[in-house]
């Protein structure tokens, strides 16, 4: 049986920190696995990603980079490892830009999450609470991000909305 | 006495589905009435609206289209019918583009909602949680949408915020 | 000991009205102090700010304008006065445009809030729940606003999220 927590929040809401703290507070077997979906497009971002990675590894995480192959990364993780995915919305954005079949990718991801036997926490952005964007790609991204959040929230045991670093349980309990 | 529920949420938050499910779960007399406020501006949208309408009518709804004359549609609905309005924010946007007197339209709508004797659920978008838009019309729309949501929330028995398909009671109970 | 409430909300969410009502409902010594951070850039805004000020002073508030020097305004307020700051996000935006050292300003503000002995309510915008803005300055503002909200929420006794005029306690109780 899976134990899946979805952590939603806006930009700089503290969602990643809260998700990391949850994983570190859980009893666990071996190193927790941090699956990072960010992609470096320039030197500044490469440096920033490397710095985050070094900081996490100092704190005992094993890092896996999966800008696209997230389901595979989950399938290849040790079955006893607690996993943090940060974040689903960047992964979705990477697939959108790659022209992937989004419903197929979403279904495969949902299945890989359901199949992981140890605790799993995934972070996602809530992006639908502003004005309709002018840009058609931004509109499509917003729709797809909302759909993915709904799909994963339906399957999660726990959904937490983070605002200004503070958690609110939308499903299950904190 | 009226029984008015306001369902708020962002884009693709699952607010319409939740609102439909609430109406269908209520005891009711006769067909529920679905008041659609979307306006078709091109062939693709005409086709999409027709498809949604056929799907709803198969599920037992009577559909009324009211991109602007929403208060009249409420006044003309059978007094015993449960009503779903989807959505107030499109209706507001239609009136803004039509150059209508928004406070007068808001007051008339509030009165028509208060006068309907059977359960009524209205869906609205929350659009004020992003960055201030550059576009002056978008800023005005954002302000007017916030004002309308406040006005109707004050008169509602129940206000529900939907995030990733999950309801949160802001007023009354789920 | 301080009594600090942070009121968060989107545009036209009713957050300022709720914050004013909280201050006016508290037992207090002397006039409450309203610290306004808005800056007038044109005649229309000058007139609007003057009208709000006259309205508030009629209702018994003492108004202080502090588009930048907010910590000083707090330090100079009578120690027994209840204070409303409206709003932190405009103050942050003013400092961002002025090229200030934001972490230093944030630290100084946090200290001035902690040092005020009477009740203090501060209003801030939640701006991180839309699509990533195209504009780099808007992205930076969004990040800084999120950081400031997290910092002040951590130090507040009470954090309230306002949607459509309705409060939700994120920390402490209403």
Structure, described:
- Three copies of one chain form a homotrimer.
- With 174 residues, the first copy, chain A, is α/β, with parallel strands linked by helices.
- Chain A has a single domain, classed as Rossmann fold, CATH 3.40.50.
- Chain A has helices at residues 15-25, 43-58, 70-76, 88-98, 102-115, 136-155, and strands at residues 4-9, 33-36, 62-65, 83-86, 120-125, 158-163, 166-171.
- In chain A, strands 3-2-4-5-1-6-7 form a seven-stranded mixed beta sheet, with helices on both faces.
- In chain A, a hairpin with a 2-residue loop joins β6 (158-163) and β7.
- The longest helix of chain A has 20 residues, at 136-155.
- Chains in contact: A-B, A-C, B-C.
- The A-B interface holds A 6, 8, 10, 126-132, 134, 142-143, 145-147, 149-150, 152-154, 159, 161, 168, 170-171 and B 9-14, 126-131, 133, 135, 138, 141-142, 163-166, 168.
Which descriptor suits the 3D outline of chain A?
A: globular
CATH topology type of chain A: Rossmann fold
The sequence of SSEs of chain A as H and E is EHEHEHEHHEHEE
Main CATH class of chain A: Alpha Beta
Give the number of DSSP strands of chain A. 7
What CATH architecture of chain A would you give? 3-Layer(aba) Sandwich
């Amino acid at each position: 049986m899976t134990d899946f927590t979805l952590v939603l929040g806006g930009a700089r809401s503290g969602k990643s920190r809260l998700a990391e703290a949850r994983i570190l507070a859980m009893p666990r077997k071996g190193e927790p696995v941090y699956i990072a979906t960010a992609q470096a497009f320039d030197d500044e971002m490469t440096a920033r990603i490397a710095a985050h990675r070094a900081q996490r590894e100092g704190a005992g995480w094993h890092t896996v980079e999966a800008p696209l192959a997230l389901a595979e990364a989950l399938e290849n993780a040790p079955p006893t490892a607690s996993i943090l995915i940060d974040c689903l919305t960047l992964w979705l954005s990477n697939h959108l830009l790659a022209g992937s079949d989004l419903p197929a990718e979403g279904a495969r991801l949902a299945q890989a999450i359901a199949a992981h036997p140890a605790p799993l926490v995934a972070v996602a952005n809530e992006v639908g609470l502003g004005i309709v964007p002018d840009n058609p790609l931004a509109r499509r991204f917003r729709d797809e991000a909302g759909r993915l959040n709904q799909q994963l929230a339906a399957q999660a045991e726990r959904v937490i909305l983070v605002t200004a670093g503070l958690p609110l349980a939308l499903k299950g309990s904190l």
